[in-house]
């Protein structure tokens, strides 16, 4: 039974499935009597005020779009270890420490370099094969959890994405996660229409992962961006470090693992994006515009 489920998810990951129905409840998407963009138009034009708009809005995936690490990726890793008959289980506390390493394959490698490799992986080639097989299996299990509706979007994500779409602000996702996993999460939780408005930069598309700035540099070059006019939304210290090293502005929205990390370099830090776009605590394009104006003011003084 597990084999059939994994085969189906692997078909999605490898691009061999034409599509799949989302079982996600409406509470995980936009809710209300008006359409998303109608509601955004109403709140964006309230009071007749205008604000500076980012040249692009870039989201991290894990921890930002959805709080996936503790209850998504970690259980998927542990299930993959069990399926491969490995005596390894990552606790909530241990996985939090391992998140200092960007990338799933890199995370497994760093862990076993420290505690010792399984008996089935004595040589460098065997270790490389094991890590790749485990990561593919973990990705399949994670994607199944997303499709099954076990991982909801974080509060305010849909609202801010729809505001950016309405105001014609280009959108992207920059993540160390597998590109198919990121695409699957966005498509399943946000819908095909929103996915089509986003550029995805993820996985092994760059050699050096966060905290290196390579993924953001790639987005900058591909999209033709001025980094000083870009706002990134991250949830971790390593993500913040990557964004700032690329010369971009960064707003941090804390996640379950990152509340105590050092965010002193961030342009703004918040607990969440907030569901009500009119509330003073919610992050909107006006919020991001204020970050851009502050940077421009600082640069001219």
Task: Give a brief description.
It is built from twelve helices and six strands.
Core attributes:
single chain, 301 residues, alpha/beta, Rossmann fold, DNA polymerase, domain 1, 6-stranded parallel beta sheet, globular
Sheet with the most strands: spatial strand order: 3-2-1-4-5-6
Taken as a percent bin, the fraction of beta residues is 5-15%
Indicate how many domains the architecture comprises: 2
Fraction in helix: 40-55%
Protein name: Haloacid dehalogenase-like hydrolase family protein
InterPro entries: CbbY-like, HAD-like_sf, HAD-SF_hydro_IA, HAD_sf, PGP-like_dom2
Signal peptide: 1-19
GO molecular function, one term: hydrolase activity
Compile the SSE list and pairings.
Blueprint: H1 2-13, H2 36-44, E1 56-59, H3 69-83, H4 92-98, H5 104-115, H6 124-147, H7 157-166, E2 171-175, H8 179-190, H9 192-195, E3 198-202, H10 214-223, E4 230-234, H11 237-245, E5 249-253, E6 268-270, H12 285-300
Parallel strand pairs: 1-2, 1-4, 2-3, 4-5, 5-6
What does this structure look like?
The protein has 301 residues and is of the alpha/beta class. It folds into two domains: 33-67 and 153-300, 3-Layer(aba) Sandwich (Rossmann fold), CATH 3.40.50; 70-147, Putative phosphatase, domain 2 (DNA polymerase, domain 1), CATH 1.10.150.240. It has helices at residues 2-13, 36-44, 69-83, 92-98, 104-115, 124-147, 157-166, 179-190, 192-195, 214-223, 237-245, 285-300, and strands spanning 56-59, 171-175, 198-202, 230-234, 249-253, 268-270. It has a six-stranded parallel beta sheet with strand order 3-2-1-4-5-6, with helices on both faces. Helix 11 (237-245) links the parallel strand 4 (230-234) and strand 5 (249-253). Helix 3 packs across helix 6 and helix 5 crosses helix 6 (124-147). The protein is globular and about 60 Å long. The termini are far apart. The model is unreliable at 1-5, 7-36 and 41-50 (pLDDT under 50). It comes from Ectocarpus siliculosus.
